[in-house]
User: Fold these one by one.
Assistant:
Number 1:
Amino acid sequence: MVIICIKQYDRDSFDKVNSGTCGIEFSYFEVKLEPTTAVLATGHEAVCIFVNEQCDSEVLARLKSLGVNYIVLRCAGFNNVNLSTASKLGFKVVHVPAYSPESVAEFAVGMIMTVVRKYHKAYLRVREGNFLLDGLLGFNLNGKTVGIVGTGKIGFLTGKILSKGFGCNVIAYDPYPNTDAAAEYGISYVETLEELLGQADIVSLHCPLNDETKYIINEKTLGQTKKGVILVNTSRGALIDTGALIKALKSGHLGAVGLDVYEKESSYFFTNSSSKIIYDDNFVRLLSFYNVFVSGHQAFLTDA
């Protein structure tokens, strides 16, 4: 199996489990999977990819011509694979059933706490010897209404932490509700997304990216939220229409935004761009807002 776009932490994890007894030989490459790099799969039965490698029809056809039969995603989402073409070409596509759901859920709650209590701003101030508290006013999570969009394992655990741990009123929207689990975790379902957005002080996104959920947060749905709402996304970047998000931020409608993902992150995330020009004007604009906190798709990254 050839493992594409690998980082050192990936290599460490694979080497740890591959003691020579699993019967799989790994080849590691740091480059992204593209039509021009697919040749690296020559002599391999399987290709292992991550969230930002695009397995489109062209790439799949090239891989098939090289004798590859398996596409292995080391992530839960599979929106970056053209499943229709993969099926026609006879590929078997597998993915991680779930990351450690606690990893992402805890990170989402931490991101909420960061943008609400402004840990990041306080840290930078104190590093410079500035101990003023002006501009660091937050609010208590206890008693606030948190809306969870998507109640898979991660969404449920995020809701549980906020309900049981912080005393939040947690509501959720999912077209396929699991009422028994929701009751156990202290979560109540609402009938529509609009109802959730109209009630929530904080909205946390935990749904997969597909045709139905792409830009689920857009100009219309942002207009359905409370003024001053906190929006957090640790799922997939394209759940949010970035242009609409910027517009809502510029109008002052949003209280704060926390993003661990971005819809065009593949050009920048998981690389060091500190000495490069970022050409994505929307991304640069997002980074310029005082009330936007962005991390580089790290919610999954724990030793669990």
Number 2:
Amino acid sequence: MACFVPFNNRNLDVTLFVFRPTVVLVDELVESLKQFCVCTETLGCVQSSIFKSIHGNLIIWYGGWMKKSTVNKELLTTTLLSMLTSMSSMAVLTEHSFFDAYAGESKDGSNAAKFSTGDIVSMNLITSSSNDLNDVSYANLALFKSRFLRMEGATAGVCLKCQSMPRVACLYVWKSLLLCYSWILTSDYRKTMMPYLDRFSLSVKYDVFWVVYVSSENVQNYQIPPQHHVLENGEMKNEGRII
């Protein structure tokens, strides 16, 4: 069964945890994250997936949750961070946030971006240096609308906005890596993106990922470590608060 990201935030909260591996062989980290996926189901995670950067050095864990209150999200985040302690020797957690899906399209008429193990996804992440989330969200949506139907090989795309900071993202699902590369090589960044973004002070990141796991696969149960620390940005921190 495929994972999915809906095109609205009515029923699902989205979490993205971004890891930068500190080991040469990342298979052990991926296996630990698979076990982590199983554990999050006991906390109410209805679906999860792991993305591995094809050319970069990032791994993203995606989790989908039934809608929660702000207090519950803070408690959940603290619990998730404590569960990641055992992976601190394999990776640094660089970012983690809750996101709302606020728009999207698919070319098969479905109401969600769907992906399975082995699929290709690309993601661009835009962070504003000022507190203008609404303006950046509108610009991100306008950019998405102007591009998606012309993106040959993209089957679906979804716009996301961060719940805690002025940050937005677009996630695209592709038929193949070749078609993804073809779009990247033929699209003109200055002509297609800058008209929508040049009035903002932004940091823009882009990467292409393999979907290496979806939560419908089975792994053995994973024991939650008792410690309440996690390696974040290169330091061990107590997770009595949300960072």
Number 3:
Amino acid sequence: MQPNPTTPLLWQLVQNTSSNTTISPLAASAANSPNTNWFQSLAYIALSLDLLATFGAVLGKQWLSHYKSNDHGKHRQQKLDGLEAWHFHAVLQSFLMLLQISFFLFEIALSAFVWSQQGAIEIAVIVSTAFSLFFYSFIVVASLKSLRCPFQSPASALVRILWRRVKDWHWKGREEISYDPGELEESQETLSVA
């Protein structure tokens, strides 16, 4: 995001045509501050991830409709085998993860922007952001402690898989760890139970 080259020219026009001499040049420079670009970048990334997750959800709905079409017998079993072979459940869960990441990026951008403005609402926005991060962390930790916890999420399944891999890597003398498809299916089953 490059600064707009017309802003100084417009500012000069406003100064030349305005009878009010109390206009500050800070208004022109505030629009191009590095903080503003940083906040906007986070917000645009959040929006892009949100749109991608929404697109994925629509595609997932179409895929499920195709699967539920009036096929019987062998053809339906082939579709079910295809869903399992292509890790359909994991793909749908990744769209949910994108949506959660998008939400947190937007919250961070909003909190940082409000903090830079030093307005009266900054405390309310930052407290609500901190509460949502704390709540989500609590839910992930609770679901990691117990597989019976009803609050299973894609993040907890991912952390569980990564923890097993790190533990296996550490205890096996740092040998090469092979991919175990059963591990992914086990985590998917915990998500589908919830």
